[in-house]
Amino acid sequence: MPKRIIFHIDVNSAFLSWEAVNQLKKGSNIDLRTIPSIVAGDQSRRHGVVLARSIPAKKFGIITGEPVIKAVRKCPNVTIVPPSHGIYTQCSNAMTELIMTITPDIEKYSIDECFVDVSGLRLKYGNDFLSIARTIKSRIKKELGFTVNIGISENKILAKMASDFKKPDRIHTLFRDEMKEKMWPLPVSELFMVGKASYKKFKLMGIETIGDLALSDASLLEERFGKYGRMIWEYANGIDDSPVQTEESEAKDLSNEITIGFDITDKETARLYILSLCETVGMRLRKSGLYANVIGINIKNSEFESYSKRKKIQTPTQNTNEIFAVATELFEQVWKRDPIRLIGVATTQLQSEPPIQLNMFDSLSKQSSNVKKLDESIDKIREKYGNKYLVRGSLLNLNKDCNS
Ligand SMILES: [Mg+2]
């Protein structure tokens, strides 16, 4: 038995399933999952792309990420629903909360994916991790109304690869001794972190399958691609010791990032994700009684290139709006207009002494103490009832903002 047992839990056609669940809850008698349907931005706009599709829509050849106009050409009767991020956040949090009743060792990886380290449950369940997976899967289906795939392995990379095997509503294992049979025959483009650009380069080098990559010379790959080359070779060989990052282990660096299930291409959507990240970071700072001197933003694009920018601020802060103001300013300076896959907000150079108020005007300090009170009461409500009950106004309107 391997030392660790890691699950990767991935919601099947998340945005579409969540929309379907929501419509059924509201009394609709059509389950979007059973008809050709897609979640997409405004189709009258050039940028409207398919964000999610039902399985019947897939049968018409509709692909996630393609323009809506193309999808409609493939299936003129397709039902189109707009994205509604408020619902996604609610469903995502409900899933996290359900898993938390089984184990706290959970890392939210993106809005519809998480890693769970179940090694600690061995005392209770022995090595029967399959039955733990079955319990999680069937409870999500029964209590929340949607299906997930669960990948099981000894590390995160293999668990993630496993959850991507046959869908929906399935459990797959991919331990290192199953790698050659189950993962190596797949095209190298299926490997996590292989973007379009590197896929083309691999092809030119004669690397077609994940197995080809695994068996190629690691030092050569490193020479050619740098650190990325070494990492990708390790992934192809199922090597990965990265831990499941629970909220607690993350709290030390007081940063938060989110991998997005689709590419963000517009500023407004990006700003809303940044706001929700700032909410979490601000809350953690306040909870730990810390103030940040430096605020940073991290971006990873759809080709998995990362870039970031930091700024030292004048007065250390733990206030969500102040962090948000700096984070968006940095975002606007640094964003290269490329499709975004991951956004992170980081706070560093933390201090525990409150900053000296330099405001000369009473009204200003009064204002800032009011802001502090607002943040505190938001934190209290969240702690008591969970994140889903309080979402800043602009997040609720994401749907509208997306299309404007
Ligand atoms: Mg998914």
Features:
single chain, 404 residues, alpha+beta, Alpha-Beta Plaits, DNA polymerase, domain 1, Dna Ligase, domain 1, 3 domains, 4-stranded antiparallel β-sheet, 18 helices, 20% strand, globular, disordered C terminus, binds magnesium ion
Describe this structure in words.
- By secondary structure, this protein is α+β, with helices and mostly antiparallel strands.
- The protein has 3 domains: 1-178, Reverse transcriptase/Diguanylate cyclase domain (Alpha-Beta Plaits, 2-Layer Sandwich); 184-236, Orthogonal Bundle (DNA polymerase, domain 1); 251-403, Dna Ligase, domain 1 (2-Layer Sandwich), CATH 3.30.1490.
- The chain is 44% helix and 20% strand.
- It has 18 helices and 12 strands.
- It has helices at residues 14-25, 55-59, 68-74, 85-100, 122-125, 129-144, 156-163, 179-182, 196-204, 210-214, 218-225, 227-236, 247-250, 267-288, 320-334, 362-385, 393-396, 398-403; strands spanning 6-11, 37-40, 50-53, 79-81, 106-110, 113-117, 148-153, 171-173, 255-264, 291-301, 306-317, 340-351.
- Strands 5-6-1-7-8 form a 5-stranded mixed β-sheet. It has a 4-stranded antiparallel β-sheet with strand order 9-12-10-11, with helices on one face. A 3-stranded mixed β-sheet has the order 3-2-4.
- Helix 11 (218-225) runs antiparallel to helix 12.
- Magnesium ion binds next to strand 1.
